[in-house]
């Protein structure tokens, strides 16, 4: 009997590395050494004799790097992603904190929705705050400690095929053409991955790319943090489209090296933070008092902005002809409106798909359909969370799924109830942090609880 998407999602969330390495392939090559590629490499280290990560950026560079331009912006590690990291790298939290990451357990997190303070779910999952380069650097350190993983500084330029299988990656090393042979190639080249072009040029089918245009404008700034151990380490103020069609929200996190990182996001012509004065003024005027207090600290450096045009997914699962020896992970498959903070957690779940697939000792001489089917469940879930919320924005014009009016009314009730009702908030948090499948919210019991909570709140 085949499992439902919700059951698959639950199983993926429970995936643990095998007790012992059990190689099913000789050499795996991962193209792209960012979060998704590194997590894939971690999983592959259990199932391959050797793993090579090809990354165009200099691996010695820590901190911001050109290959990950979004790295300057605030990145939330959802509790679901944090749980996965702890499983893949036991002791991750301790080591992260020792290197400057800041604990973000439920009592240290505060969230406002449309200016109303949300209840804390006391037994919610733990998480961590830190800059994106810190989090990625921590993952890289852990992966490169594995004896069978190495990084090659090179730019991948194409695939090597042998009949119906991918057997390697072509790359430029210091301007000289070369190639890495592989039994399995993993595309982790991010949102701008060239894999579709490479497949098409080699006569294969190009996967359909689906987009939802969001025109999101991000701005992030750093402030000096004087408290060594602040009571609140993650503060978020979210605005629903009904309340504000163009300001998405703001957040600030305690991060390494005694700093706060603050972010503001807007849609369309709303471009927050073009200057430092504008950033500070908006923090003071548009958000709850904690943001005004933050704005009183010294700003460190400039405001960094980032424009994100669309959420997009490439439907590899739907192509009829796909070569053997090839899979994709992370943003290369699907990247979402970053306001929901899903990217790194989705990448961790793709790694769980890879682990499940390789554990089944698959025949690698045929396309990895079983992997693509598992990954579709993760992409569908993340896509539905992100796009169903974005469809409520006035400037987003679809495509609307069937039953959208009813489902958007129900989700508005549930989201509103998360402000006052701990049980509804717990169930909602489990879904938005990608620990539970979105269908777990579609129960009459939860909707009734939400309606009752909203009625109580109105009184
Ligand atoms: C503004 C913004 C804010 C975000 N906020 C969050 C957040 O709060 N929480 C969250 O979880 N996610 C967030 N994300 C998403 C997150 O950044 C990504 O999901 C995450 O980085 C995983 O991406 P990835 O590893 O698939 O790709 P990327 O991080 O984009 O990395 C791709 C890698 O591939 C390399 N590469 C590309 N082409 C080649 C080539 N030809 N040869 C060799 N190497 C190559 C690049 O150098 C790079 O290292 C945000 C994204 C944006 C844009």
Automatic annotation (TrEMBL):
SUPFAM superfamilies documented for this protein: FAD/NAD(P)-binding domain (SSF51905)
Superkingdom as given in the UniProt entry: Bacteria
All copies of domain FAD-binding, residue ranges: 28-358
UniProt name for this protein: FAD-dependent oxidoreductase
Source organism per UniProt: Micromonospora parastrephiae
